[in-house]
Amino acid sequence: MTTTAPRPPAPAPLTPPSAPTTERSVRRIAFSQTLSRWDVKVSPYLYISPFFILFAITGLFPLVYTAWVSVHEWNLIGGQGDFVGFDNFAFVLSNPPFWIALRNTFSIFLISAVPQVLLALLIAAVLDRNLRAKTFWRMGVLLPYVVAPVAVTLIFSNMFGDQYGLINNVLSDLGIDPIGWHSEVLPSHVAIATMVNFRWTGYTALILLAGMQAIPRDYYEAAMIDGAGTIRQFFSITIPQLRPTLIFVIVTSTIGGLQIFDEPRLYDQTGQGGASGQWMTITIYLYNLGWGQLNFGRAAAVAWLLFLIIIIVGLINVAITRSIARAS
Amino acid sequence: MSTGYGLLETARPSRRRRVDNGQRPGWLGYGFLTAVLLGSMFPLYWSFLIGSGDASTINQQDIVWWPGGNFLANAAAVLEADSVNFWKAIGNSIIVSTVVSASVVLFSTLAGFAFAKLRFRGRAGLLVFVIATMAVPTQLGVVPLFIVMSQLQLAGTLWAVILPAVVSAFGVFWMTQYLSQALPYELIEAARVDGASMIRTFWSVALPAARPAAAMLALFTFIATWTNFFWPFIVLDRQNPTLPVALSLLQSNYFVDYSIVMAGVILSTIPLLILFAVAGRHLVSGIMQGAVKG
Description:
The complex is a heterodimer.
Chain A (H helix, E strand, L loop, with lengths): L22 H48 L1 E4 L3 E5 L3 H7 L2 H32 L6 H9 L6 H11 L6 H8 L11 H29 L3 H9 L4 H12 L1 H15 L4 H4 L16 H11 L3 H32 L1
Antiparallel strand pairs in A: 1-2
Helix pairs in contact in A: 1-13, 2-13, 3-7, 3-10, 3-12, 4-7, 5-7, 7-10, 10-13, 12-13
Chain B lengths: L6 H5 L15 H25 L3 H4 L12 H10 L5 H32 L5 H11 L8 H10 L6 H5 L6 H14 L2 H9 L4 H12 L1 H17 L2 H6 L7 H11 L4 H31 L6
């Protein structure tokens, strides 16, 4: 057995406690030793196999099979049809709704992710202070996390109602013209981004807080002795030291954010992403192709395109975050 | 990071953890946090305002700031609505979330034990594979998953929701991390010397040691499953929904009677609010120990 990891020795092979006297007991011990050796050898694979087998069936296989479906004509009713090469991709890429969906997805993602990380940094910085009732505040910012996205969306789509919504009512009390939170493109993106941020900002803040607490406090002491103020310390110590945590937060929110479905799907009753696709995202487009038009081939093509986009954006994110943290 | 927060802190001033960032925040800090907290709670309060009013509450210019008295009536309307099957949805959500949490914890602890404490060929490579799959958006496999579930005659049943969720790469990673620190080799060796088989060692030594991390994993998996919408929405039908799916039906069925919709929102959120009240502290420390979104 070879292993590359530096590890303490494995459990020592069993040795019979006392010298066997009769031939029979020798054989029995020999047998149980063989059994035990097999136990040691096979057990690890046995224990990890449920994960690998089930993941292969329900995670990996569908992803790969998506590629197969995407190069075929494939209907929900009729099943697999002819091989069509990249026709499905060509259709999707030449179809204006795909590009609208792509624009919306990125717009919503940016409008949610950037303010979310900034606000979470601020919250984390305050939580990192020596607060009274620490646990209370930490739990408080986490509360929205237990509200399901579907519930969040139903609440906010009501508050963002175009006609009698709370927010437009308040705006009109302040003498501001009501905003078309549903009818217009950018306001609808802001509304959806608000829902995402409502649920995730506190969660992100706690991750960043954990990152901040891992920064050695001596750094701050040294900076203070050098006369650096709170703000300077934040940008010169906290942000660069948080780099791994920030990369983690940004990559995970990219993976989740670009697949956004719940919020735009339930932002109005029809679930089509708005009358002219104001807030139709890629996953909604995928759903509409697959389960609205029953065209699985095209839906699979969209899934693969989104998969590629997520990987590319994830890599770009890592690069950007690295350079920002290095610069500051 | 095991900086104590309690007595140890004051007993050992030499650590000086609190010297710099240790100033108590001024009113600005507390004011900011209070604002964040109010922002976190307000939408829930708003949904209760609407959910306790009647159909006219929402359609008026003047905002009503106090709850009405109709919450129970609205909740009853939700529970009795023929078109939504809310009772069934509650039962389904409990079943799915419980089964998924239990199986994720079991399989993750098994695999985590093997990865953290047992030697075998390919260990390092396989662990890297597990970590890599955490970044794979498996949600994008919905099309084939639906095809497979249909062919297995499982579409529309709870199995279709449970099966794809019974293992989690994050869970394996989480338990591996925890067990590699929390479970000393000496304990395993002792059990082995005493003649325990591998599975017995797992059951009597590893599993008890894994309990804190396992509880946290169960908690997060439960919440994630309870609030999951995309796949259940695709594969379940309105006769047999989970709670988020039922909620979405509520909105499309009632032509904007938001008092009913919001009563449904409250009903579906109450269980998790109770969970939060009981285990919120553990959620916080779970996230801070490196839990992952989703």
